[in-house]
Amino acid sequence: MQNNLIQKFFESKKTEATELLSDLIRFPSLSGTGEAEIQDFLADKFTALGLSVKKELLPETIKEHPAYSAAAQELDYRSRPNLYASLPSENKESVILCAHSDVVPAADWPDAFQPKVEGDRVIGRGAADDKGHLVTIYFALLALKELKLKSKKNVEVQAVIEEEVGGNGALAAIISGHKADGVIVLESTDLTICPANRGAVWYRIEVTGKPVHMGRIREGVNAIEKMAEIIKELRRYEEKLIAESDHPLFREYQQPVQVNVGIIKGGDWPSTVAGWAEMEGGVGFLPNKRLEQVQEELRALLANFPDTWIKEHSRISFPKLRNDAYETPVNDPIVTDLAKAVGLSGLTPKVTGFIVSCDARLYNRVGKMPTVVFGAGSIRDAHSRGESISITEVLKASEVLTNYLIT
Ligand SMILES: [Zn+2]
After folding, report:
1. Å from CA of 360 to ligand 1 middle
2. Residue 171 C-alpha to ligand 1 middle, in angstroms?
3. In angstroms, what is the span from residue 98 Cα to ligand 1's centroid?
4. What is the Å distance from ligand 1's center to 149 Cα?
5. Cα-to-centroid distance, 406 and ligand 1 (Å)
6. Domains along the chain?
7. Dihedrals φ, ψ of 385, to 5°?
8. How many angstroms separate the alpha carbon of residue 358 from the centre of ligand 1?
9. What is the distance in A from the centroid of ligand 1 to the CA of 185?
């Protein structure tokens, strides 16, 4: 009976949900600069729901935290707060529902911030990543209010900034002490429950050679050719990584771990033996390895290189992206209770690993909280031109959250 009522409620909210998502898309809440206004708007929405709302600026000291992600430009924390909205319960159990309010730029998409509606889909920058999910959370809580249902868990909604920079908003929430028994990070997973996340680290390798005129080629050492040898060794490392990475939550992916060569530069003149080479790339890895371990293995690859020149004239560093992998046990209540709620909402629960990094790793690795990623929509839409999400699916995710909170 109650189930029926809940279902009907969400079926009746499509227009309202479409409007809210369109409103959110209209804020050009670019990561690292443009989040202030949308946070004010969301604060009003959650206050109107009866939640107690707090805005907290990120502490300047966050820049010294080892998990802090630096951006191309210096980030300024004087005006872009995280938003926390809490709903108390009579029970002790607690959950954080997190979605991020920042978006990536849309340079190749002039009307990205003018939402369009086509049938069931809302189109615009942030529709799937991550504003559709803010809508999911809002309507899950609206259902509790309008249907007079009680949450069995203390809820804290976190609308965080700077996810796209690397997760500084979530990091601030964690280090300023926001804690719960479990965290649901809302991202587009096609309504699959993802208790594990692939990790990724970007590397930079520099090699120096001995530049001479090509007429004296035998006296020189070519840094580009040395780099080619390193690439071969990286391929062997990838094979080893694949062999060591059989993980039940990632078996459906053809190759969930990989070593990529993304950028290569080197040399100064066609008739000079190249005196330098520099390469950047990425390594994807599963939660059976820690970030530090992968970095150590890559350092060892150069330090133990069979070629003495490479051993002595190369260096590796990790100045950019460093996202750890993580894993929450599949028998943790955050997974099993959410799976139950998916079932109550008329879907077959599916549990698998997530191969895109998001805030979840921070809640789990830094905050030590059981964490899952879950949400409507497909990750293929994220960051794309023409990004869109199905409102029916957004509200289906709301239904799941409502069922999760009341059972
Ligand atoms: Zn996202």
Report:
1. 10
2. 15
3. 10
4. 29
5. 26
6. 2-197+325-406 (3.40.630.10), 199-323 (3.30.70.360)
7. -75, 130
8. 6
9. 9
Q: What is the mean pLDDT of each run of 10 residues along the chain (407 residues)?
A: 89 98 98 96 98 96 91 89 96 97 94 97 97 98 97 98 95 97 98 96 97 96 98 97 93 92 96 98 95 97 97 94 94 98 97 93 97 95 92 98 97
Q: From ligand 1's centre to the CA of 267, what distance in Å? A: 39
Q: How far is the CA of 118 from the centre of ligand 1 (A)?
A: 22
Cα 126 to ligand 1 centroid, rounded to whole Å: 8
Bridge-based pairing of strands 322-323 and 199-208 is antiparallel
State in Å: Cα 120 to ligand 1 middle: 21
The Å distance, Cα 356 to ligand 1 centre, comes to 9
Q: Mind spelling out the 3-state secondary structure of the chain?
A: CHHHHHHHHHHCCHHHHHHHHHHHHCCCCECCCCCHHHHHHHHHHHHHCCCEEEEECCCHHHHHCCCCCCCCCCCCCCCCCEEEEEECCCCCCEEEEEEECCECCCCCCCCCCCCEEECCEEECCCHHHHHHHHHHHHHHHHHHHHCCCCCCCEEEEEEECCCCCCCHHHHHHHHCCCCCCEEEEECCCCCCEEEEECEEEEEEEEEECECCEHHHHHHCECHHHHHHHHHHHHHHHHHHHHHCCCCHHHCCCCCCCEEEEEEEEECCCCCECCCEEEEEEEEEECCCCCHHHHHHHHHHHHHCCCCHHHHHHEEEECCCCEECCEECCCCCHHHHHHHHHHHHCCCCCCEEEECCCCCHHHHHHCCCCCEEEECCCCHHHCCCCCCEEEHHHHHHHHHHHHHHHHC
What would the two tokens of residue 51 be? Answer: 């939640």
- Give me ligand 1 centre to Cα 379, in Å: 9
